[in-house]
Amino acid sequence: MVEDARPANETAPPRAAVGFLRGLSGKLLLLTIAFVMLAEVLIFVPSVANMRIRWLEDRLNTVAAAAVVVDGLQNIELPRAVQRETLMATGTKAIVIRRKDASRMIATVDMPPAIDGEYDIANFTALGAIRDAFDMLLFGGGRVMRVYGPLGESDATIELVMKDTSLRKAMLVYSRNVFLLSIVISLITAALIFLAINRMLIAPIKRLTASMQEFSDEPSSPERVLVPPDGRDELAVAGQHLASMQRELQKTLKQQKSLAELGLAVSKINHDMRNILSSAQLISDRLADVDDPVVKRFAPTLLRTIDRAVGYTQEVLSYGRTAEAEPHRRFVALRPLVQDVGELLAVDRSDIEFDVQVRDDIMVDADSEQLFRVVHNICRNAVQALTSHHPEDGRPRAISVSAVRTGSVVTISIEDTGPGMPPKARENLFAAFRGSARSGGTGLGLAIARELVLAHGGTIALVEKPTPGTLFRIELPDRPVRLDAFRAKGRS
After folding, report:
1. Using one digit for the tens of pLDDT, what is the confidence trace for 322-340?
2. What is the pTM of this model?
3. Rounded CA separation 191/378 (Å)
4. Of 86, 197, 406, 409, which sees the most CB atoms within 10 A?
5. Which residues, in sequence order, are CB contacts of 356 under 8 Å at separation 6+?
6. Which of 369, 454, 382, 456 is nearest to 417 (CA)?
């Protein structure tokens, strides 16, 4: 078996344009012709049956006109020659007038020995007429039939005995004419419908398809974006959405390219930064042995900060994925963690108040480093917003971090008295490179915070507040306890 030599991740090239009859336009044309012909067939079936009845009625009426004149001549029999001419003129074998009390043979020559069928044109059903008509078309010709009906307004009946050859010939001519007329009507109708639908439907679809193919060939080119058509129909709306999607995709591709280039640059810089931080870590370890009160005060914070920086650089080098590492969860005291955030942000050396409203007994089931990054990113954004904001009403610039445990869920609220989130930042709150509230910002802080909170099975949201500023609420649930682990702990 011969296998395809193309790689598995390589898409097949676009197929060449199909022929007219295999394309949508050709199929539409053929279907229109077929449906019109089907409609003509449905019309032909009752019309040919009606044509047969009308033909027999006309023949009866013609014969009745002559028969009434002869019937008025009582006790006079027409000569054989006259009878023969009358029968030949009407195409019949016998003409009979029947009344309740008597019957009279008007003319007869070479009376056939047997009758193949009898038809009463005064009493018939629609299905019966259709059945008799198609029986005549398919199997008629040379058969003898007896046809009778009322003689005008009297109670007499006119009766004919005749062959069905003339009737079948007339029905065949009628069928041929109907068929040819149906072909002409179907072609004209199909052409008109095709032209209308091709202009309204097929041409716009081809335009959308061509735009998608051209865009897939070179998605980064602005010239490949579809110029959306005007209008409010479905295809116009589809074209407008397609153009919007193409523009959004171009922005995303541009951002992805920038991120890829940024990631490569960060990896190179981070490699050297890790070496520098490692040296700083060795030096900072010696500060713990220095007998100086100021050094002893700041040395633990400096050591923790450098340790976190080294850990971050290691994570960047081993990133290789688009998601954060799985959290290593344990119960962590929340108050010291929040205080570390305040010390790292150095808010005590500014006019920004950092209020920690967290009880000492509140424990959070979380990865301490990831939770630190979440609180630090949000508080750092608050510090940046407060630093550039000077309220005119004299309100204090403050950041407040509070927490409360409700059952197995810890709710952390981080509030500031800054100017609040602008509308553009609210629309793309947790989107990287789009949700920044300040000029020059990247919006990565909130995007990282959201990803870390979701990894813990929690939620993070911006909460509306009546006073100026922002309020973020984080909810982190405890991990569910397995029953066997709970029993083992109880036994121990």
Report:
1. 456 788 999 999 999 999 8
2. 0.44
3. 67
4. 86
5. 335, 338, 339, 342, 401
6. 382
